[in-house]
Amino acid sequence: MANLLAEGYRRLFKGKRFYIVLAVVIAISVMFTLLYMAVNKLAGGMVMGEEDAPMIPADPLLFDNIGITPLLVGIAAGMLIVQDFRNNTIRNKIIIGHSRVKIYMANWIVSVTVMVIYMIAYLAVSILLGAIILGFEEFPSKAIFINLLHVFFIELAMTSLIVFLCNTMKNVGGFVLAITMHYIVDMFSLSLMLLNKHEKAQQIIREAVPSLQMSIIQQNYTETHANGVRMILFMVAITVVSTVAGALLFRKSDLK
Fold first, then answer.
1. Rounded Cα–Cα distance for residues 143 and 101 (Å)
2. What is the pLDDT of residue 48?
3. Three-state SS sequence of 55-91
4. 106 neighbors 8 (Cβ within 8 angstroms)
5. Of 176, 76, 241, which is closest to residue 249 (Cα–Cα)?
6. Peptide bond before residue 140 is cis, with ω within 30 degrees of 0
7. Predicted confidence (pLDDT) per residue in 170-191, tens digit
8. How many of the other CB atoms lie within 10 Å of CB of 116?
9. Nearest residue to 246 (alpha-carbon basis) of 198, 187, 186, 178
């Protein structure tokens, strides 16, 4: 496993894609901060007395990347996995004695590392620029830290699904599906909620689907959700099931 991880990290950090996407993550944080600043200036100019303007603090910035991160992780980590299949690197790893389960888990660990780095980079830039340019209203607070932890589990579930799709489909189609998964699942789950009129069923869908959880957190980032623990458990379940299922499917798959 150590050799697989070392090789995975070497390929990740040696390539340009990781750093290009990292630059995009930082640019997105800067862009959102400047956008908030522009909106605040516009609001201040539209009222008599700038102190009366409805100013936007930096707090929402911390959660603006929730829907973007899976896409960026898919581009940086998902394509790395698919390239292993396209270049027959996976077969070479199996031939020299690495087990398929260890190969899958190494890909999962590398992908989660990418997710964590991108999350930290976005938050670090947002906190620094947000504090300087906009100022915080609620951060730091217990509720925001809990919701940031909640976001971690949402992103972990989404990253696990990306690894699952890329490893099971083994082609560019799996990569494309992985990076669009957030939007596809979002549309499908919203349609399912509209068709299903049972309030309890709608609540379960909202709490069990990662993309819908993202919306809940973004809309109520200053408050802890009443069913937050259950929502996190749903994300842990998705992470475990997708990872175990992916490893088992990859173990029996034909690589010809």
1. 38
2. 47
3. CCCCHHHHHCCCCCHHHHHHHHHHHHHHHHHHCCHHH
4. yes
5. 241
6. yes
7. 766 666 666 666 666 666 666 6
8. 15
9. 178
Cα angle for residues 172, 182, 207 (degrees, 5° grid): 145
Tokens of 174: 């799996």
Q: 89: number of CA atoms within 13 Å, CB side?
A: 17
Segment 87-90 long-range contacts (CB within 8 Å, at least 24 positions apart): 90/255
Cβ atoms 165, 174 nearer than 8 A: yes
What is the model's pTM? 0.86
Q: Yes or no: say if 40 and 34 are a contact pair by the CB < 8 Å rule.
A: no
Q: Which amino acid is at 236?
A: V
The residue assigned the tokens 């730091």 is: 140
The pLDDT of 65-88, averaged and rounded, is 82
